[in-house]
Design the sequence.
């Protein structure tokens, strides 16, 4: 008996049987008797069915319109026209040189020569959302290749690193899901196929794996659990629902095709005597008894029936009264599993006010911004910027004094995604203006939030004002001469 609690013990409040199932989710009663949950670790949980999920997700992205829309919406909202760097180095001259050299690098960054760097961001994001991860190799080039910076980026699909590759490397390191780790648990290499496994049969080098140092590889994925090594498709939780919903929708479509087969049937008396005037037996469509078996229906027609005949119309099935509501519920679940608002997935904005859509979009955008910074910037953009600086300095493309001894000041950069479109342009601009005037934010922060660079805006405004003064132009937008209402300031009035 526990000291101090005799009455509670007597009443059974502290007995182990009372504490054992304090959470219903851990209960073993009738409602949970078929509830089986495994205890697999973060690495082995997806190892068995990972390739199957990838294949099914790609198939859905090719054929299912809702899967196509989900992937397209995620990529366009996360990447848009690109996540661009804004150097934080103090010297404005070096900042401008870095920005100019970066723009030149962006146009030549693709090892395949198809996209620019921001297009590669979009392609990497597409692979990230469709199959859960994407790899990229940093490919140094020769100085005589004529590139602004002798460095390019090669994007690789997830299959290039086999997740079934496990064991020990020749140097004694451990390999897990194609990734080699040292004794401290740090990634030191990736084991990659020379060609895509799905295409390697024609190349004659199907099983050849190459050890690539981790310093040359970018791995873009979102760990679903602490310690997870590979990513899973965004649609993993809704793949089966998408397939069954597509089959259901096909069944309803076929049923509607049957419903469109509208037909009428004429009932005649059971007596064997023919009713109605005989017609030419040689007429096209006449039956053996000399009567036409079919009666056509035309708009505005008055069809006279013979005595004793009746007309009975077919009653084919329709789509059902709950079809629309059922589809909405299923698509709501799919949108939730895909991390999208229902309205963005389907385009259905019925009964949605502008205030409600603002709340919905704000919550969605918060998740997008979280993934932009934690995944795409940290795992992809930041590493490309560091490699870009190293290669540019080593190749002599730019002179950065002190970079070799302390590269950190040059690596400080702010990555700015494409700005969100205004929901209420007038109100949003007024709110930003008041926040700046009240000191709650800065012009730089507002410009960055809109995907712009405040320094670049200032230089453009300076050039615009100088050109306007040169030509004697006076615009309503010139704050030096006019107030917020567009009226001339008193000192400038004639």
Sequence:
């Amino acid at each position: 008996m526990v000291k101090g609690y005799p009455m509670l013990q007597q009443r059974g409040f502290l007995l182990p049987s009372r504490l054992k199932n304090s959470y219903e989710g851990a209960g073993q009663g009738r409602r949970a008797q078929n509830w089986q949950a495994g205890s697999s670790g973060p690495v082995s949980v997806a190892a068995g069915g990972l390739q199957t999920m990838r294949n099914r997700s790609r198939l859905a992205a090719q054929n299912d319109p809702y899967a196509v829309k989900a992937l397209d919406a995620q990529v366009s909202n996360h990447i848009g026209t690109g996540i661009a760097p804004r150097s934080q180095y103090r010297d404005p001259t070096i900042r401008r040189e870095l920005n100019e050299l970066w723009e030149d690098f962006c146009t030549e960054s693709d090892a395949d020569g198809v996209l620019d760097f921001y297009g590669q961001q979009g392609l990497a994001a597409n692979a990230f959302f469709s199959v859960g991860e994407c790899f990229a190799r940093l490919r140094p080039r020769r100085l005589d290749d004529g590139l602004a910076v002798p460095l390019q980026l090669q994007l690789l699909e997830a299959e290039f690193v086999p997740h079934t590759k496990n064991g020990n490397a020749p140097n004694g390191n451990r390999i897990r899901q194609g990734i080699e780790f040292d004794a401290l648990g740090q990634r030191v290499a990736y084991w990659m196929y020379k060609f895509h496994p799905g295409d390697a049969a024609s190349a004659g080098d199907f099983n050849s794996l190459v050890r690539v140092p981790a310093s040359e590889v970018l791995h873009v994925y979102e760990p679903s659990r602490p310690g997870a090594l590979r990513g899973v498709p965004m649609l993993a939780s809704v793949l089966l629902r998408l397939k069954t919903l597509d089959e259901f929708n096909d069944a309803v479509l076929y049923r509607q095709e049957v419903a469109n087969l509208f037909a009428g049937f004429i009932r005649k008396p059971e007596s064997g005597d023919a009713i109605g005037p005989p017609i030419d037996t040689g007429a096209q469509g006449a039956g053996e008894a000399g009567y036409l078996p079919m009666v056509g229906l035309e708009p505005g027609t008055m069809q006279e029936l013979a005595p004793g005949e009746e007309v009975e119309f077919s009653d084919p099935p329709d789509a059902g009264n709950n079809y629309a509501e059922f589809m909405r519920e299923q698509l709501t679940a799919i949108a939730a599993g895909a991390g999208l608002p229902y309205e963005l997935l389907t385009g259905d904005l019925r009964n949605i006010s502008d205030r409600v859509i603002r709340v919905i979009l704000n919550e969605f955008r918060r998740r997008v911004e979280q993934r932009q910074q934690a995944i795409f910037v940290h795992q992809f953009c930041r590493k490309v910027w560091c490699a870009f600086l190293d290669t540019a300095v080593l190749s002599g493309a730019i002179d950065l004094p002190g970079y070799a001894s302390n590269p950190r000041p040059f690596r400080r950069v702010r990555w700015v995604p494409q700005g969100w479109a205004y929901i209420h342009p007038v109100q949003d601009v007024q709110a930003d203006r008041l926040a700046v005037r009240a000191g709650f934010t800065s012009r730089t922060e507002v410009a960055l939030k809109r995907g712009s660079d405040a320094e670049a805006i200032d230089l453009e405004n300076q050039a615009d004002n100088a050109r306007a003064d040169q030509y004697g132009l006076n615009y309503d937008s010139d704050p030096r001469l006019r107030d917020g209402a567009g009226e001339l300031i008193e000192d400038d009035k004639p």
